[in-house]
Amino acid sequence: MIALTGSTGQLGSRIARLLAEADVPQRLVVRDASRAPSLPGASVAVASYGEHSALLDALDGVETLMLLSATESADRVSLHKATVDAAVAAGVQRIVYTSFAGAAPDATFTFARDHWHTEQHIRSTGVDFTFLRDNLYLDFVPGFVGEDGTIRGPAGDGRVAAVARDDVAAVAAAVLTGEGHSGATYDLTGPAAFTLAEAAAVLAAAWGRPIRYEAETLDEAYRSRESYGAAAWEVAGWVTSYAAIASGELSTVSTAVPDLTGRPAVSLEEVVGAG
Length: 275
Description:
The chain is α/β, with parallel strands linked by helices. Helix content is 40%, strand content 16%. The strands form two sheets. It has a seven-stranded parallel β-sheet with strand order 3-2-1-4-5-6-8, with helices on both faces. The longest helix has 16 residues, at 110-125.
């Protein structure tokens, strides 16, 4: 039995659908049962990240947990750790976790540090694991464009090997149902690394209107995003995602997607309908 968190979200719903298509029994662990996708071979259990007692019940009899990272929050690491601890206590033998490219305690992208701490905690439990270190999502790139047709951010001329959610889901399904992934860490990327200026050109071609990239300094980026009234940790996450592109930490292209799925990784052009 495979349990899956986050099945009401964009990535989790894709993974759940692929498992259902492969006739794999799964348990969808959700906060709200009414929002769980209705899929053949899928049962539903109600529990939230960090809810020990509810998770013990939800994960009873589960061998493998597909742990999608929780929504970014100030206490995300503690929620992840508590969820992992509950899974181990429930008898889960294997955790497949959606981490992030370049996860490290000193990663430029602050949210990538959360993923590193979660990885370390999973390792410390002694449970079998596989880490899927996703790059930024290609699906997010169109959302970088402001109302005035400009992408603004402190990414400089750095490159990002962004990956499509569809590819991450396909890899997850392959890892969950295949053999030989024990203790593995896979960097999941698209087929190429591009600058945001190049991304703007792709979007302009797809949408038939001018799109441009305007580089910001870190100070400019913090000032512009602080105007939204978000918490400091959230603003830092937004800004440092661009800074991680500038630093080159997200530029390495891997072959994990084609290696694990047997098909080429999806490109930005394909995601936005320009190729």
